[in-house]
Amino acid sequence: MRISSSPPRGGEAMNDTSASSGGEASSSLAETPPNFRLPHQLVTLKHPTTEASFMVHKEFACYYSPVLKEAFQQGEVYEISVTWHFEPIQLLVQWLYNQRFDKQTLHEESLNALDEPPDMEVTSLVHEEQFLMGQLWTLAKHLQIPGLQNDAIDQIRRLARKYRTLSMDDEFFGILFDHATPGTALHEAVIDLYSWLLTVEKGAYREKIARGISRTPRTIVSGVLTALPEYGSKGPDYNLNYALYHVDDKGNFPANKPFELVTLRTSKNEYDESFGVHRESACHYSRVLETFLKKQAAGNRELTYIMRYSGAGKRELGSLLQWLYTQQIDRHLSYVDTPDVPYSQLPQRTILGMESDSLLLADLWYMADELKIPSLQKLTIGHLWRMAKKYRFVSSHKGFMDKLTNSGKWTVPHPLSKAVSEIHAWLLVTAEGIHRKYRSDTITTLPVMISTEVLLALAALASETKSNDNAVAALVEESRTISSAAKKRKA
């Protein structure tokens, strides 16, 4: 941008009075709505490449654009080079006077979607206007005119919605690469439109759209991949929320908040596993993440929370991420889809899968404990009980026990270890014959902290079974056996 200063007309020098008067008028231009009270004050908007120039009343330019207000305090000509062509400047001038602009190629009367994709001629006209609106949005963003930004993006979305097409021309992609950075209204609106088009179109036209999207900036492609699962249920007639991609009066994009991410990482090593989660979800469910984000500098969009718990990897973080968005973790648990058959009939690979599920649930419990997410902790324990009641299974694997006791370093039980101990006790009580003996032998191999908790759980169960003397006697005998074995190991 260049500002050109022009001398007083006729070469006359301005006296002090006129200079003072002009200064006062200039300073009030952006404060009072324009009404042609200074009709003689004109300024020029110029496109340097095409040499096209547009005259506009100064009071209109300065009222709607703080950038132009500042610029025209130094001169009377402002060069605009953020657009490829001069037509966006022409629309800008229209908008400065009317706060609307004439649609250049199309005059749609409704937003009803067409049954078929438009023909090539109509598509070309639609893409031309979308490119024009993209340039206008970029210009309005540069000049800090939020109302014009919103009108331009509304027109892009109207055209895409009615004619079921969004430009994939190189010039339009140029706008996305150069000006529609992640988090801006245009960037997120384009993701929304491409995702919707992919779900409503079929056959060769869908393939054409997919090929076009693959040429867009990587952030657009990534956004579409993330958004696609949500669009299958919207169909061709989903309601357009025009305010969704509007900026506020200060030019800020209100939708930035839900699009801001916080990164969860397993260690300070930048190459370790990490996942991004939207701040809104993170803060809603985790008091720790909410506190962490409040302490960060305002506007910082590169926020990383490093997990203190070291047992988390890709699968564990992925499960945590799924829960933060859906409050479910079933997709990461193999036992959920296992046929409902007795434990003795389960194939070995299924049992190994449940061992792996147990490790995952323990990791999730510890991560939820660190992040202060009690509902996720409750869910993990619920899955352990579900496995026990459905398949009479609870892990006694060394890896699982090490997680419960921190490889033997912990001696004070916690809610997860207590829950596992109660499951072992319940399985022992409900087992019969040789199966009870197997359960008893298994418990004698558990860490002292766990076996002690099993004893306490057995005692509690025994005290509740007063009506059956034989059952009480059997439980007491099992308790003695387990206690003796635990004492020998400890000695």
Automatic annotation (TrEMBL):
Chain residue ranges for the region called Disordered: 1-33
Source domain of life: Eukaryota
InterPro entries with a match to the protein in the record: SKP1/BTB/POZ_sf
Bias type Low complexity, positions: 18-31
The protein's name in its UniProt record: BTB domain-containing protein
Organism: Cudoniella acicularis
Taxonomic classification: Eukaryota, Fungi, Dikarya, Ascomycota, Pezizomycotina
